Amino acid sequence: MDDLKFGVRNKRGDWTPNKPVEYAPLFQFPTRFMAILKWLPHYFLPWNVIFAISAVAYWAWVIPSVETMQTISVGWVAWLYGVNAVCVFLFYGAFELHLYVLKRQENRFKYNGKFPADQKSKAFWFESQNLDNILRTFLSGVTIWTALEVGMLWAYANGYAPWLSFAENPWTLALVALVVPVIHEFHFFCVHRLIHTPFLYKWVHSVHHNSVNPSPWSSLSMHPVEHLLYFGTVFYHLVLPSNPIIMLYQLHYAGFGAIPGHVGFDKVEVGDDKLVDSHAYAHYLHHKYFEVNYGDALIPLDRWFGTWHDGSPEGDARMQERYKRRKEKLAAKKASSETQEAAR
C-alpha cells in the first residue's frame, strides 16, 4: 500500500496526512443533515461496534449472576481481573504484534518514523518504553478498571444504580447507548484539562506524556490517579437511567477504546487492499505538542476553548500565536511584580 497517496513523509521519516483533522458534523452549526448521514456509519464502525459487542459478550459469558454480585468476594473479583487482563493482552497485543513486532506495514502511515523499542530513555522503568507501558497497564490500569467494574456491578446488584430492562425501556436505553461516546468525550476533555494543571501534570499526567511517540501499550500507561479519573467515566451510570450492559460498554469504550488514539499509525492495513482508519491524528498531535487537542474530534470542545490543532499549517500558526500571547502575558506579569517590588 502506497501511503504517499494519502500523505507526505519528511526527511526524518515522519508521515503526515494530506487532509487536516475535521470535527464530526454532529455539533456543527448550521446543521448539515446530509453530512451527518454520510458521517453516521463512522460513528459506529468499526470501533464503537467492537466495544458494544464486547460488552454484550461480557454480560453473556463473563459477568457472574446478580446473586453472586450482591456480595463482593475474592473469587469473582479475581475472575474479572483475569478476564480483563487476558482481553487487554490479546487486543493490545494484536496491534503491537502486527505493527511494532512483526512490522507488517513497516512505517507506512506511521506518524513518527521511529519505533519506541529502538530508543532507550531514563524516563521509563528499565529505560524501556514498552516494558514501562506494559507494567503500568497491568499493575495499575487493569486493576483500577476491574475495581470500578466490580463496584458498579455490586451497585446494580444491590439496587444502588438505576437498572432499566431492555424489554420495558428499549428507546431510553438505545438513546443512552447512543450517547456513550459523547459522555466519554465530555468526561475525557474535562479530566484531561484538569490533569494538565501544573501540579497534577508534574506528579500525575507526565507519566503518560513520557510516551511522546505513543504505541499500543502507551494507551493505558498512566499514573494510578489518572487511571481512577479516566475510568471514572463509568460513574455517570450511577445517575443515568441505564443498564449494566451499557455501563460495561462505557467502561470498554474507555479501556479498549484507548487503543485507536495511541496506535501511532493513521491507518492499519488489513490484507492487501483494505485500510482501517485509526482516527489517531488529533491525539497524536496532543502527545507531540502537549497543549492542544485535550479531547478527540467528536465534540468541538477544543475549538470552543481555543486549543484545537487540526494538523494544518494554519493550526500550527494558531498554536504558536497562543504560545506567544501566553509568554507576553507572563512577561508582563513578571515585569509588574518586579516594579512593585522595586517601589517598596
Tell me what the structure shows.
By secondary structure, this protein is mainly alpha-helical. It has 2 domains: 3-304, no CATH class; 312-344. It has 14 helices and 4 strands. A two-stranded antiparallel sheet has the order 1-2. The chain has a two-stranded antiparallel ribbon with strand order 3-4. A hairpin with a 5-residue loop joins strand 1 and strand 2. The radius of gyration is 22 Å and the shape is globular. The model has no long low-confidence stretch (mean pLDDT 95).
Characteristic key phrases:
4 strands, 14 helices, two-stranded antiparallel ribbon, mainly alpha, 56% helix, 344 residues, two-stranded antiparallel sheet
What are the secondary-structure elements, in order, as H or E?
Answer: EEHHHHHHHHHHHEEHHH
Biggest beta sheet attributes: 2 strands, antiparallel
Q: Please compute the radius of gyration using only Cα atoms.
A: 22 Å
As residue ranges, the low-confidence spans are none
**Percentage of residues in DSSP E strands:** under 5%
Mean of the pLDDT scores?
95
Walk across the major sheet and give the strand order: 1-2
Overall tally of structural domains: 2
